[in-house]
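Ticket #446: bound-state structure for iron/sulfur cluster.
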Amino acid sequence: MTERAETIEQSRAASPAPVSGFSGADIPAYEDYAHCVHCGLCLNHCPTYKLWGLEADSPRGRIRQIVLVDQGRLPLGDSFVKHIDQCLDCRACETACPSGVEYGKLVEAARAQIEQNYRRPFFSRLARDFVFRGLLPYPRRIAAVARLLSVYQRSGLQSLARSSGILRLLGLADREKLLPPIDREFFFSQLGRTYPAVGARRAQVALFAGCVAQVSFSALHEATIRVLTANGCEVVVPTGQTCCGALAAHAGVRDVARSLARTNLDVFLGGDFDAVITNAAGCGSTLKEYEHLFAAGTPENNKAHEFRKKMRDATEFLADLGLSARLTPLPMRVTYQDSCHLLHGQKVREAPRELLRAIPQLELVEMAMADYCCGSAGSYNVTETETSLALLAEKMKHARATNAQTIVTANPGCLLQMRAGAAIHGTGQEVVHVMELLDRAMGKKS
Ligand code: SF4
Ligand code: SF4
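RESOLUTION: The complex was predicted; output attached.
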């Protein structure tokens, strides 16, 4: 602990009244927030600051509020919760920060404090408990809810609900548009399978399959497996793997995130894989940062450290390995939307672009502000729908201006959001994952 941190600790201990508004586990660390020198260089990279122009909704303002609560000078109350909730956790401020402030760690610790020390309204508590504690950790429950949604989507109920105006009456019209289309067959049935490499084996990798992705992105998983095997990778889909815990960690529900992390660490470190691959940047960023969930020196932290060395985004892994499969020309104009948790969370910018440029006759045009959040941000588009849609409107303006027929991204959450954006704003653009486009260039239909 640094000298100043010790002084704060001593003053907390010496004061008759509690100095800090934080208590319990996962307190934002002085060592983390003290790096902020309040220079403000992050402000113009922050989507919520750009939207509202309010210091309290900027990275610097949010860090200041965290400091004030830690010093007992601001209550951990409604105002603090509102500004922390309104943060996308997109981490664009981290990329912009010259002082190396790890903002993601700070905001997630602040949310853990809110989870422990603040009473949210009844229905909010109910919904959060259901999603984070009762649903995401349980694949069977995810499958059951997905089956119900599938009936809603395929029976005509969805069309009826949309055309009758009932969704608008209930205030659910915008949220409903963001529902993922449910697969006819779930990916759960593929757990335990091994897909052999085509030709000489260049690597053996494990595929991380996720939670919701297994009921709504099976086609993407299959395309990813085809691309990996065509490029000489044997792909194992280990059984026993579970949700990565990203949504829980981002929401401050860290006990659940820890429990999921323990399971995944055991499963993926149980095999001698060259790499563990994910096609979901949001998951990848949390999987690579499991170390943040466990105290330094604990066995779990050591495991997380080992795991981090293996964990790779599919684009990052393939760009490093080098494509060996033959690519057929795709004469099309595409633009790439960075996923925040790939670019800002994992610092991967070039790999997806490099793979796209490798496709013959494909023209890649850069979109203005491609590094700016689309508004998906995990569950943000459900909890802060209005803000999410405002960011999406801005994003679609830039996407349309490229005249690209296809928008490519590297994260299922961004795919859903951008597809909804293309539909709402009538841009007529298709939205696909990098793996799906590579799969198409390898002659497969995806
Ligand atoms: S987070 Fe970084 S960029 Fe932002 S005000 Fe603090 S030091 Fe400056
Ligand atoms: S994580 Fe994103 S929304 Fe939150 S303060 Fe940083 S830049 Fe702004």
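RESOLUTION NOTES: Residues 367 and 398 are 6 Å apart (CA to CA).
TICKET STATUS: resolved
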